[in-house]
Amino acid sequence: MSINISLKHINKLAIPALIAGISEPILSITDTAIIGNINVNATESLAAVGIVGAFISMIIWVLGQTRSAISSIVSQYVGANKLEKVKNLPAQAIFIITSLSILIILSTYPFAKHIFKLYNASNLILEYSVDYYKIRVFGFPFTLFTMAVFGTFRGLQNTYYPMIIAIIGALTNIVLDYILVFGIQNYIPAMNIKGAAYASLAAQCLMALLSAYYLLKKTSIPLRLSFPLNKEINRFIIMILNLFVRTLALNITLYFATRFATGYGAAYIAAYTIAINLWFFCAFFIDGYASAGNILSGKLLGAKAYSSLLKLSNTLIKYGIGIGIAMALIGAIFYYPLGRLFSKDPEVLSLFYDSFWIILLMQPLCAIAFIFDGIFKGLGNMKHLRNVLLFSTFIVFIPILFWLDSIGYKLHGIFIALTFWIIARGIPLIVKFRKTFRPLSQNN
User: Fold this and answer.
1) What residue intervals traverse the membrane (predicted)?
2) What DSSP character marks residue 396?
3) What number of helices (H) and strands (E) belong to the chain?
């Protein structure tokens, strides 16, 4: 079977995936931008959004790895022309992951105050963090359901419908954010940080409903849970467990980064919140091409088209580095307007401007790491991804962070440590991929 890996076809998959991907950080960026411009306690509110955002991202990224596992298995069966054999797998996977999300709600809601104390939140920041989280937490099942459906679409080589769903969700969040945070005189009272949480929750619910609709109407994949369990469920669970460990390591990185920034003071965590949300935006932008790598690598592996797989990686590296450089240049051009978009506090802006350049320089390196993340997820090689993240977090990031903190680098130290973390993620994946598939491609 001939599989198209031309730039045109890659873009056909990557651009919708890119648009869908950036909807996730747009939810947080919208909250950050609007909350940073309220008239009452803006800095404390912005800090709370950053702290809660870090914790929510940790949970969603851990449980949301269902998307990658489903995509990998489905795409491999598509490549082998055996899709019928895994049609009931997505519904079973969705049931497992949404059940876990309900357990997360039950186990974190009563202890929200204690959780955010671990992030060094206190006083008004702690109060706002708890208020914001106790609303956002109910969006977990809807978000994870949506991500699992997106993974199914990716496995089917379709990124168009996830893009439509993501656009509608992001626009809904932006409109509701503005209305509920600032209010409408004589009609809707200003709800400040709680309004931002309700806006995000509403957008997540809408996206879940649309995901169910498009999957049922546009594909042959059912959402009804059926038994017996699919024979691939064991491989799916092993993938998920490896990705759980990997993502926990990833979020330990974000936890330490957020905790250190919070410990430096309200202005520092506010500046860090702006910078890290822009980093997330860039990451998800680049992730569009990582998604194309995920989708196509699984299909190529299923078809045993190893030489095409190697060509795909070379193409994506060039594209990814180009996008990373472009993101850095755009950030440099709009360096000062970006800061003013999120805050008017002179101290917050000064700290942001003093460190954001490190985020920009990191972008081409991020592109390589994220693209090979996507390729390895498509290949189903979650074990190697797990080991690389454990190494980059515990052997590289944490020691560098503590050392730079000890010599007073503060935000600079956090972002420099993140840069080395990214390098330690990307290089081992490139080496492993080429060592595995170069010999296979020669016999292809």
Assistant:
1) 46-64, 93-112, 132-153, 160-184, 196-216, 236-257, 269-296, 316-336, 356-376, 388-405, 411-431
2) I
3) 17, 0
Task: Measure the CA–CA gap between 364 and 419, rounded to whole angstroms.
Answer: 11
Question: For all residues of the chain together, what is the average pLDDT?
Answer: 86
Q: What is the pLDDT of residue 297?
A: 86
Q: What local confidence, expressed as pLDDT, does residue 413 receive?
A: 96
Q: Which two tokens stand for residue 21?
A: 């991907």
The half-sphere exposure of 421 on its side-chain side, counting CA atoms within 13 A, is 24
Res. 210: pLDDT tops 90: yes
Q: Looking at this protein, which amino acid is placed at residue 133?
A: Y
Contact present, 364 and 325 (Cβ < 8 Å): yes
The rounded distance, in Å, linking the Cα atoms of 168 and 280 is 20
* C-beta of residue 321 within 8 angstroms of C-beta of residue 367: yes
**Model confidence pTM above 0.85:** no
Give backbone dihedrals phi and psi of 36, rounded to 5 degrees, phi first.
-65, -10
Indicate the burial class of 233 (C-beta count within 10 angstroms; 0-12, 13-18, 19 or more).
middle
Write the pLDDT tens digit of every residue in 238-288: 888 888 888 888 889 988 998 999 889 889 988 998 898 888 878 777 777
Greatest CA separation for the chain: 73
What stretches of 315-433 adopt beta strand conformation (E)? Answer: none
Residue 232: strand, helix, or coil: coil
DSSP calls for 100-127: HHHHHHHHHGGGHHHHHHTTT--HHHHH
pLDDT digits over 350-368, tens only?
999 999 999 999 999 998 8
318 CB-contact burial (10 Å; exposed 0-12 / middle 13-18 / buried 19+): exposed
SS3 253: helix
Fill in the amino acid letter for 355: S
The more confidently predicted of residues 2 and 13 is: 13
Tokens describing residue 322: 């180009």
Contacts of residue 380, defined as CB under 8 A and 6 or more positions apart, other chains included, come to 69, 72, 73, 76, 235, 239, 298, 301
SS3 call for 38: coil
